[in-house]
Fold:
Amino acid sequence: MTADGQLPRWEVFKQDSSTKAHAAVGSVHAADAEHALLMARSVFARRPSAVSMWLAPQWAVHQYTREQLAEGFAAPSEQLAVPARYLVFLKTSDRRSMAAYEHRGEVVASSTTAALRAAVPDEPPLGVWLVEAAAVIATDTADAEPWFAPATEKRYKQQSEYAVSVKRHPAAREES
Amino acid sequence: MTETQAAQRAAAFEARIAAGEKIEAGDWMPEDYRRQLIRMIGQHAHSEYVGMLPEGAWIDAAPTLRRKLILVAKVQDEAGHGQYLYHAAETLGATRAEMLDALLEGRAKYSSVFNYPTLTWADVGMIGWLVDGAAIKNQLMLAQCSYGPYSRAMVRICAEETFHHLQGREMILTYASGTPHQRAMAQDALDRWWWPALMMLGPHDANSPNSPQLKAWRIKTKSNDEVRQEFLDEHAPELLAAGLSIPDDDLRYDEETGHWRHGPIDWAEFWRVVKGAGPCNAERLAARRAAHDDGRWVREALAAHAARASERTSE
Structure:
């Protein structure tokens, strides 16, 4: 438990197909990595279009909005003895969407501030998340089939299964 | 910050909203924007959680395996929707523990409609068609919300909720064209759920004091009455065509405007239910508290297991 009496929070990044990038979909609270992956599957993969998930504990996710980026980079962060890998997620659009902050690559830097400088493209995005790669847990590729395939077989969860039109009943009121 | 700077910040915020930008966690926002969102999203999350109870009660008694699978999936979705929404509220600084405490202690509101009992199996279908049908109209509106995390949760919810609506509609249409007994069951369910479904979309605009500000901030993009009208225009003609009668003597189609009109809503009943005196308020909260208490040992075991594992790693 954390100090506020809750299990720790993990950000969830879901990949919809092998040609798409992982994107932030929400979070779960879980005691450890194994529990977090199971929670993320129940919450975010009840429907098809999941082939992989990455999770990161909240403390390893550094979030910067467009406003914060425009105000200049945050105060210099702690210098690391050994440079670390950061996964870079960018928000580039405000259009209607289920997910934002898509995975766009990674940088190696010896502080979060340096990572941010390296991660922000010339055309400033609407937001940047830097995720400490060492803290990320991922679904196992070998498990992808048993983990994600069942959702595609449960066709009764698809709205297309219920395309029924209303047939006028003989007892229907005239004006309808 | 000087007064001028504060005014500039507020103006810049309004300009972002007007330009259709999404506000994200960490952006500057007026305190009242944050407060209203936490209130709305919290109530919405609680509604998803409590919403599992009326239908969950029928899982054991589902008449066929197919209907049971559908109902289990639907109730599981509601749990997931609660999770998406608690997450959205957390991005504004609320915690799940605080929000859950507020629900369990009876301090937080949730949708009035879940305080009505599910008396027959047909209620499961009628809830899908009417209650989820009304909820989707509201949620499609909220998917346009100016706050990014809430908007994205809504887009995800709408995609899944459409299945809830359509499975209920299909079930009721099946019964409405079935045996006299099935038709009577569908009619009885409609008689009991029609008014609660109309009410759940909230007070008339004239009695909805938060609405103008919520609209100005594009938290809501339509008023309660506008959403209710959309619900009525879709559902009234379909229910009537199915040969069911809607329990409202004043219900009529207005040729001039092309809209359906309903009779007066019993707002005294609405407020009675919202304030805790509905048919099932006490039962719903008691069930939520029991579920929370029954799950305590699991949460404690998970935390203890994680603590021991991390001790072992550090040894």
Remarks:
- Residues 3-314 of chain B form a domain with the Ferritin fold (CATH 1.20.1260.10).
- Chain B touches chain A through 59 residues (CB under 8 Å).
- Chain B has one domain: 3-314.
- The longest helix of chain B spans residues 148-176.
